[in-house]
Design goal:
167 residues, alpha+beta, Alpha-Beta Plaits, 8 strands, 28% helix, globular, binds 7,8-dihydro-7,7-dimethyl-6-hydroxypterin
């Protein structure tokens, strides 16, 4: 079994419902169980500003799936949620990213781990550090230090019972 961190994001449709349903679906994947879930966060878009705010969260899972198999399963869930991607760095129904997979470094065309922009984004780092405050990258880099460097990206906790009550 391998520990993996999954980033969840949405800014189209009923984002809180989409993220809560994705969380349940990930827990129900064969060979996957959720070990920890961050709170739900709301932030302004990184990228084009003429799109709605995003809702984000991070899950820590324990999985027997390989990283490519996990990616395929997450992409399937995105499709099932009716994923719409309007433009590059634009609005999306549901985004599920593998942020970290064990201590592995993977550089394939369609799968890069650690996620290449993980250290630049408060919407990933805040929820990630909430569930694993001393987390480092495979090369030992401290994510708390990266997070401090993103202090100019406003992000706030978003309380919603639909996310809080998910088991
Ligand atoms: N911005 C925020 N705040 N949250 C996201 O999940 C997100 N996802 C993206 C881009 C378009 C880069 N911006 C985002 O893919």
């Amino acid at each position: 079994m391998t520990d993996a961190f999954i980033g969840l994001g949405s800014n189209l449709g009923d984002s809180v419902a989409l993220l809560s349903e994705a969380r349940i679906a990930i827990d129900q994947l064969a060979g996957c169980c959720i070990v920890a879930a961050s709170s739900l966060y709301r932030s302004a878009p990184v990228g084009p500003q003429d799109q709605p705010d995003y809702f984000n969260a991070v899950l820590l899972i324990d999985t027997s799936m390989s990283a490519p198999a996990l990616l395929a399963a997450l992409q399937h869930l995105e499709q099932q949620a009716g994923r719409v991607r309007v433009r590059h760095w634009g609005e999306r129904t549901l985004d599920l990213d593998i942020l970290l997979y064990g201590g592995q470094v993977i550089n394939q065309t369609n799968l890069q781990i650690p996620h290449p922009r993980l250290t630049e984004r408060a919407f990933v780092l805040k929820p990630l550090l909430e569930i694993s405050s001393h987390l480092t990258l495979p090369d030992g880099q401290s994510l708390a230090a990266s997070c401090a460097a993103t202090a100019d990206q406003p992000i706030c906790l978003h309380n919603d019972s639909r996310w809080s009550v998910v088991p």
